[in-house]
Description:
Oligomer: single chain
Amino acid sequence: MKELFLLKFKFALTSLVATVIDYGLYMILVYQFFTPVVANTIAYTIAVIINFTLQKKFVFSMEREAKRVFLLAVGVSVIGLGWSNLIIWTLTQYLFFMEYQFLTKLIATGLVFFWNFYMKRFVFEKKFI
């Protein structure tokens, strides 16, 4: 149980770095250039690449070939992006969430976190728990 907690902690730290990048880029893009879903797609994609690199180095052991891990991780991230975009699109149908994009993005990020953790652990280490 201690090992799983430590793994989640390291995952949370690397995710925090990627999330700060994702969140910061999203705020700039959504308020200056793009609609919420487009801004989310760009910011999320950049953060995914950074997060994969950090997780490969600091969090998960590689129990599969690196190329395969990358392709599977991208697949997990694409599904996570789909969930994130769906959540953001749904929430921004309400004026409150359209006005408070920082909260909209925070909710989407929080919900998708759990998908990403368990699926990426499976991708890297072939374990769900």
